[in-house]
């Protein structure tokens, strides 16, 4: 062999080794992304996730194949329904963001469809490695946070206080779902390397123990449900493997013994008992959270009861995309039972959320379409370990979506899209691979995502200046900041919110403030907005409206209402 041929072969081998590692890093990064600056804490994480999607498209685009057309139609129909039932009283940002999320999810489904190919074992392992790296690093961060030892890592992570563990996901249930997905990836790696040497098996056991410890430290009841589901399903599959082996089947034994997997449950509860003992007093344990439940007025049952009342009022077309918080505020004092005490911007159950904002028919189409895809795919018949892992990852996201809203966050959108592509790849792969537009699509989609992220990031940095003290702003925005950022259309709601909270109400501007407050109430019905609405209505002589809004204010936010009556200020984040 010539030296040039040898050099080319070495380069190809190097690229083959490098691509899976880059892919793993791109999957892990959104879960670990630490930046939360500006008025909306998840914007940078969302933009980082889209950049990772663009990079994955470029990395895997040479062998790209399509997801199944039925998946693409379902995603497109979901985006179309959000656009049709968008709120006319909000800026286009909520539904444009939803459309961008669906587009990015669709594009990452192309990556997943490429991973479904049988000849891409190294890239398939990259998905598992990415989730395990994200889970293990987040577990370390979470345990440091739990024992209030994460301060030295600032600004790479936050300091939530002793007894709180959520890594860089800023929410215990999201942290727990990441840990659950990492456990699933660990099981897949065990099945894929069942003949590994003893040191690797010991490392695997150590990682599983770390993940179980982090799951217990999260004190997430959603996480506990996920762990129980994972253990139960894995034990069932492991038992089925051994029964088939005893019956003389060629079905390979891949997973650990069912008893080994089931032992994770008592280990989880033992860790959950031990962690708060080591942390000292003042730290809530999982046992406390299970026995005491949610604080008064914060129960999901109350929340769902309120949402069902709102659905019953507008069952066909809903309240409009992004309008749940407004609808919940407007019904202060009108619910037949208890009222959920917080600002309610999500129903904490995806079918209910779709029904309350888009209407029952649209929710039935979206959820029914997904259920139809799942039933047609017959997951209970799958024997391919990689597809089983994808079903389990999808199951974690679906279970979490019945209790909260993980699909509102970039990292979970990325994994969800990958699972769609893995589980529903195009059936005629040769035809898809030969299609010229399909080969050009990854590069075009990546370029579009980079452009969107670039513009949104630039605009978000601009509008964030009004939420910073003057000496922390960019030099060009130190003075007359509000006027300079007024032209933003992507984040117009955040700019108008800042303008409203910074503008004193006077007789001269009462009409303008009143109109602005009415509009911002649909974006964020919080005390600072309500006070402006009530005070401007009083100055305009709209006494009945002022009385009605003050009554809602007293029911929705009794503490802040009391401060307002006493003439004490209600703090604002804008300055």
Model description:
By secondary structure, this protein is mainly alpha-helical. Helix content is 67%, strand content 0%. It contains 25 helices and no strands. It has helices spanning 3-32, 43-60, 69-84, 93-115, 121-146, 172-192, 198-217, 221-246, 258-262, 264-279, 286-292, 300-313, 324-330, 350-358, 360-377, 385-401, 410-423, 429-434, 436-464, 481-485, 492-502, 510-523, 527-539, 543-556, 558-565. Helix 2 packs antiparallel against helix 19, helix 6 packs antiparallel against helix 7 (198-217) and helix 6 packs antiparallel against helix 16. The longest helix is centred in the first third of the chain and has 30 residues, at 3-32. It is globular. The N and C termini lie far apart (70 Å). The model is unreliable at 4-15 (pLDDT under 50).
In a nutshell, what does this entry contain?
The chain has 575 residues and is mainly alpha-helical. The protein has helices at residues 3-32, 43-60, 69-84, 93-115, 121-146, 172-192, 198-217, 221-246, 258-262, 264-279, 286-292, 300-313, 324-330, 350-358, 360-377, 385-401, 410-423, 429-434, 436-464, 481-485, 492-502, 510-523, 527-539, 543-556, 558-565.
Global mean pLDDT: 88
Number of strands: 0
> Can you count the helices?
25
> What is the element string, with H for helices and E for strands?
HHHHHHHHHHHHHHHHHHHHHHHHH
Helix-strand category: mainly alpha
Helix content: 55-70%
Radius of gyration, in Å, reads 26 Å
Judging from the principal axes of the Cα atoms, what is the shape?
A: globular
The oligomeric status of these chains comes to single chain
What fraction of the residues are assigned to beta strands by DSSP? Answer: under 5%
Q: Can you summarize the main beta sheet?
A: none
How far the N terminus sits from the C terminus, by CA atoms, comes to 70 Å
């Amino acid at each position: 062999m010539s030296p040039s041929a040898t050099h080319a072969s070495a380069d190809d081998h190097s690229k083959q080794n490098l691509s899976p590692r880059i892919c793993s890093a791109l999957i892990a990064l959104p879960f670990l992304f630490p930046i939360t600056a500006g008025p909306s804490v998840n914007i940078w994480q969302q933009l980082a996730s889209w950049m990772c999607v663009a990079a994955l498209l470029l990395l895997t685009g040479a062998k790209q194949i399509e997801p199944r057309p039925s998946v693409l139609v379902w995603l497109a129909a979901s985006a179309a329904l959000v656009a049709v039932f968008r709120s006319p009283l909000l800026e286009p940002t909520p539904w444009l963001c939803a459309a961008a999320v669906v587009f990015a999810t669709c594009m990452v489904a192309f990556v997943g469809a490429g991973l479904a190919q049988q000849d891409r074992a190294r890239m398939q392992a990259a998905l598992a490695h990415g989730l395990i790296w994200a889970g293990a690093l987040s577990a370390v961060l979470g345990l440091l946070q739990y024992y209030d030892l994460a301060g030295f890592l600032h600004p790479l992570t936050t300091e939530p206080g002793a007894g709180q563990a959520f890594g860089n996901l800023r929410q215990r249930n999201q942290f727990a779902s990441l840990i659950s997905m990492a456990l699933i990836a660990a099981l897949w790696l065990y099945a894929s390397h069942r003949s590994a040497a003893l040191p690797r098996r010991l490392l695997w056991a150590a990682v599983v123990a770390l993940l179980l410890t982090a799951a217990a430290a999260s004190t997430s009841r959603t996480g506990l449900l996920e762990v129980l589901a994972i253990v139960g399903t894995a034990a069932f599959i492991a038992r089925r493997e051994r029964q088939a082996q005893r019956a003389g089947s060629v079905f390979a034994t891949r997973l650990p013994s069912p008893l080994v997997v089931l032992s994770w449950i008592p280990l989880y509860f033992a860790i959950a008992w031990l962690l708060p003992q080591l942390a000292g007093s003042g730290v809530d344990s999982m046992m406390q959270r299970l026995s005491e439940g949610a604080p008064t007025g914060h129960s999901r049952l109350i929340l769902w009861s309120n949402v069902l009342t709102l659905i019953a009022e507008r069952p066909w077309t809903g309240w409009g995309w992004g309008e749940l918080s407004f609808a919940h505020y407007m019904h202060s004092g009108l619910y037949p039972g208890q009222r959920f005490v917080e600002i309610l911007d999500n129903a904490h159950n995806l079918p209910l959320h779709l029904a309350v904002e888009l209407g029952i028919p649209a929710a039935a189409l979206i959820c029914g379409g997904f259920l139809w895809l799942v039933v047609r795919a017959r997951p209970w018949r799958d024997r391919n370990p990689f597809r089983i892992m994808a079903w389990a990852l999808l199951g974690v996201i679906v279970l979490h979506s019945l209790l909260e809203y993980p699909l509102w966050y970039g990292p979970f959108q990325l994994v969800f899209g990958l699972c769609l592509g893995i589980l529903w790849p195009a059936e005629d792969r040769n035809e898809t691979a030969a299609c010229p537009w399909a080969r050009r699509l990854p590069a075009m989609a990546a370029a579009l995502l980079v452009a969107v992220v670039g513009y949104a990031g630039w605009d978000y940095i601009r509008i964030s200046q009004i939420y910073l003290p003057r000496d922390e702003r960019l030099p060009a925005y130190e003075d007359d900041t509000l006027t300079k950022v007024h032209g933003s259309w992507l984040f117009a709601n955040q700019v108008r919110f800042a303008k409203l909270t910074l503008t004193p109400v006077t007789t001269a501007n009462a009409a303008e403030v009143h109109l602005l407050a009415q509009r911002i109430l649909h974006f964020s019905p919080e005390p600072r907005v309500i006070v402006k609405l009530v005070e401007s209505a009083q100055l305009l002589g709209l006494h009945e409206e002022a009385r009605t809004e003050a009554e809602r204010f007293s029911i929705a936010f009794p503490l802040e209402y009391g401060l307002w009556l006493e003439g004490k200020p209600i703090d604002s984040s804008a300055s």
